[in-house]
Amino acid sequence: MMTKKRLSVLLAVVVFAAVLFTTIAYAASLKDKATSQEYFSWWWKYDGRLEFVPSYVTPQDPGYHLEEGRQVKQGYINYTRRKNGKDVSVIGGRQYTREATDRNSNSVYSVEATATDSLNIFTNQTHFWWDWVYFD
Fold it and tell me: Terminus of the chain with fewer CB atoms < 10 Å: N or C?
């Protein structure tokens, strides 16, 4: 039977891991314009989402792989894990949004994916990737 001290330590480790591995990357300062987010659900499960609005023109120094002064046409997310020296997708490859046909559209385009990680925290861990395709 676990003592109170051991349970407290275990809870502290779980909370620390949740804070440590939670990543939220905002690609723009305004909500629903061009964002990429990854939520750490449990220590072994990740939920990723990418969304954009084609009419949004990215500002100066937008960060997170966005190019300044461009309008996003499509985006993708992918989860990979290192295997034999290569990054291998654990969700069957890149997951793309629908391609926007009108750069003036205010519709929100998005894609979501979920990945599970190994319960062994010492093995190769899952990584979240995303990128954007722009109108010419």
Answer: N
Residue 89: CATH number of its domain = 2.60.40
Report if residue 8 sits inside a domain.
Answer: no
Whole-number pLDDT of residue 39: 63
Whole-number Cα distances in Å, 70 to 49, 52, 55, 61 = 21, 12, 10, 11
Residue 39 covered by a domain:
yes
CA–CA dist 93, 85 (Å, integer):
17
3-state helix, strand, coil in the chain (%, to 5): 15, 40, 45
Please, what are the averages of pLDDT over each run of 10 residues along the chain (136 residues)?
Answer: 52 40 35 60 78 92 85 95 90 96 95 85 81 94
Structure tokens, 92: 């069957």
Residue 57, beta-bridge partner list: 71
Give a yes or no: residue 78 inside a domain.
Answer: yes
Asked whether 75 and 109 are in contact (CB, 8 A), the reply is yes
